From TrEMBL:
<dbReference type="InterPro" id="IPR007812">
    <property type="entry name" value="T2SS_protein-GspL"/>
</dbReference>
<feature type="domain" description="GspL cytoplasmic actin-ATPase-like">
    <location>
        <begin position="36"/>
        <end position="141"/>
    </location>
</feature>
<keyword id="KW-0472">Membrane</keyword>
<keyword id="KW-1003">Cell membrane</keyword>
<keyword id="KW-0812">Transmembrane</keyword>
<comment type="similarity">
    <text>Belongs to the GSP L family.</text>
</comment>
<protein>
    <submittedName>
        <fullName>Type II secretion system protein GspL</fullName>
    </submittedName>
</protein>
<dbReference type="InterPro" id="IPR024230">
    <property type="entry name" value="GspL_cyto_dom"/>
</dbReference>
<dbReference type="Pfam" id="PF05134">
    <property type="entry name" value="T2SSL"/>
</dbReference>
<dbReference type="Pfam" id="PF12693">
    <property type="entry name" value="GspL_C"/>
</dbReference>
<dbReference type="InterPro" id="IPR025691">
    <property type="entry name" value="GspL_pp_dom"/>
</dbReference>
<feature type="domain" description="GspL periplasmic">
    <location>
        <begin position="256"/>
        <end position="365"/>
    </location>
</feature>
<keyword id="KW-0653">Protein transport</keyword>
<keyword id="KW-1133">Transmembrane helix</keyword>
<dbReference type="InterPro" id="IPR043129">
    <property type="entry name" value="ATPase_NBD"/>
</dbReference>
<keyword id="KW-0813">Transport</keyword>
<keyword id="KW-0997">Cell inner membrane</keyword>
C-alpha cells in the first residue's frame, strides 16, 4: 500500500491549512506524486507518516542516569530535570522524544518541540480520518561514524543551510558568515545537496557542484529514518506499535537492498517446492491411472461382454454372480452356502423354529442366542464371508459386500 507523508504548517494545524504531502510507493523509495492541499483534499490512504519541519525541533544531547528509569512518566520526569536549564520554554509545554535504541547510562539525543502544536497537527489528521502511524523529523543528527549531511533549502531571499552531523542539527542562513560558524572538519567529507531555487547560491558559497534534490525527495528520505517522535503522551497503543514494527520489518524484507539475496533465495526455494510437489503429484497420478487401467483390462479380458467400464470391482462381482447362476453354480449370497456356513457356526443343539430367505438375506427365529453367543457367531461368520447380527429373537445373516 502506498505511503502518505504529510508535512503540516508550523502554526497550529487546522483542516483548511495547506499541508505538504508526498505519496511514496510500497518500497518507500519511489516517489509517486506530491503537492500541497487542505486535509480534506489529501490523497486517499488511512495511514499517515507525519513529518515535523526542521525549524519546529531543537536537539539536545543528555546523559541518561544508569539503572532502571521505570515507566514513561518516570522517564519524562528525568528528562524534565536534565533539560530544564537548557530550554527557553518551560519543559511542561514541550514534547520530548528519545533517539532510537536509547539506553540508561548512555548519552542520547532528545528532540524537543512545542507540545500543543504537534498534538494539534496529529489531532487534525486523525479528525480527518487519517491515522498517524509515525512521526519523523525532517532533519536528525547523524551517527558518529557517518559523514555530515548538508542541505541548502528555501527560496533565494530566505535560503537556509542545515547541517546534520554527530554534533546535532544546525539551521543557519545560507551566507559566508553562517558557514564560518560551522566546524570545517566535517565539511570536507560532508554529503551536500541543494534545492533548485538555491542551488546556485549554495554552489558559489561551498565552491563545488551540488546534486539537486527536490523537497519531496528529501521528505521521502527523511521518512525512511529510524526516528519516531510519537513517544510519551503521543505514543501509539502497544498493538499499534507492534503493527508499525511488523510493517517496517515486512517493508524492509520486501524492498531493502540488503535483503535482496534472501528474497531471491526464498523465491527459488518456493519454486523448487512447487516443482517438486507437481512432479510427485504427476508420478502418483500416473501410478494410480496405471493400476486403474490394469483392473479395467482384467475385467474386459475376463468378460468380453462388458463394453463400458464404470466401476470395475462392482461390475466384476455382478458378472461372476451372473455366470454362477447361468452355469448352475452357487454363490456366497445363495441359500445353500449360507446355511452350510451357519450350520458350522451355530452352537450345538440350536435349531431355528422359523426360516425366511429373500434377496440374499436369511432370517432365522427361535435360536435364543445369548449376547456372548451372538458375538462369537458374528466373528465366525465374518471369517466365512458373512455378516450376522441379532435383533431381538431374530438373527439376520447375509453375504458381505465385495468391492
Amino acid at each position: 500500500m502506498p505511503e502518505l507523508i504529510v508535512c503540516p504548517p508550523l502554526s497550529r494545524a487546522h483542516g483548511g491549512a495547506e499541508h505538504g504531502w508526498v505519496l511514496a510507493a510500497d518500497d518507500g523509495r519511489t516517489l509517486l506524486s506530491h503537492g500541497s492541499a487542505p486535509l480534506a483534499l489529501l490523497p486517499a490512504g488511512n495511514d499517515v507518516t507525519l513529518l515535523v519541519p526542521g525549524t519546529a525541533l531543537s536537539w539536545h544531547a543528555v546523559a541518561l542516569p544508569p539503572g532502571n528509569l521505570g515507566g514513561a512518566a518516570r522517564l519524562r520526569s528525568v528528562l524534565d530535570g536534565l533539560l530544564e536549564e537548557r530550554l527557553l520554554d518551560e519543559p511542561e509545554s514541550l514534547h520530548f522524544a528519545l533517539e532510537p535504541g536509547a539506553k540508561p547510562g548512555a548519552t542520547v539525543w532528545v528532540a524537543a518541540s512545542q507540545r500543543i502544536e504537534l498534538r494539534a497537527a496529529v489531532q487534525a489528521l486523525e479528525s480527518a480520518g487519517r491515522r498517524v502511524t509515525r512521526i519523523v523529523p525532517e532533519f536528525a543528527p547523524q551517527p558518529a561514524e557517518a559523514p555530515a549531511m548538508l542541505f541548502a533549502t528555501g527560496e533565494p531571499e530566505s535560503a537556509q543551510l542545515t547541517v546534520c552531523d554527530a554534533n546535532g542539527v544546525a539551521t543557519l542562513p545560507l551566507s559566508p558568515a553562517s558557514l564560518a560558524l560551522v566546524d570545517s572538519a566535517p565539511l570536507d567529507t560532508a554529503v551536500a545537496s541543494a534545492e533548485p531555487a538555491v542551488a546556485a547560491q549554495a554552489e558559489a558559497l561551498l565552491g563545488q557542484r551540488l546534486p539537486i534534490v527536490q523537497t519531496p525527495e528529501r521528505w521521502l528520505q527523511a521518512a525512511r529514518s529510524s526516528w519516531d517522535l510519537g513517544q510519551f503522551d503521543l505514543a501509539s497503543s502497544g498493538r499499534a506499535r507492534a503493527g508499525k514494527k511488523f510493517g517496517a520489518l515486512l517493508n524492509a524484507l520486501r524492498h531493502a537492498p540488503q535483503w535482496r539475496a534472501a528474497r531471491w533465495g526464498a523465491a527459488v526455494l518456493v519454486l523448487a517446492q512447487l516443482v517438486g510437489l507437481n512432479a510427485w503429484a504427476w508420478k502418483e497420478r500416473n501410478a494410480l491411472e496405471a493400476k486403474r487401467a490394469g483392473i479395467n483390462a482384467i475385467l474386459v479380458q475376463t468378460f468380453p461382454s462388458v463394453k463400458v467400464v464404470l466401476d470395475a470391482p462392482l461390475q466384476m462381482a455382478s458378472e461372476v454372480a451372473a455366470l454362477q447362476q447361468s452355469t448352475g453354480g452357487v454363490a456366497t449370497l445363495d441359500l445353500e452356502p449360507m446355511l452350510a456356513a451357519l450350520g458350522a457356526s451355530l452352537p450345538p443343539g440350536r435349531v431355528p423354529t422359523a426360516l425366511d430367505y429373500s434377496a440374499g438375506q436369511l432370517r432365522l427365529r427361535g435360536l435364543n442366542l445369548s449376547a456372548t453367543e451372538i458375538g462369537s457367531l458374528t466373528n465366525t461368520m465374518a471369517a466365512r464371508g458373512y455378516t450376522a447380527r441379532g435383533e431381538g429373537d431374530l438373527l439376520l445373516v447375509q453375504a458381505e459386500a465385495k468391492r
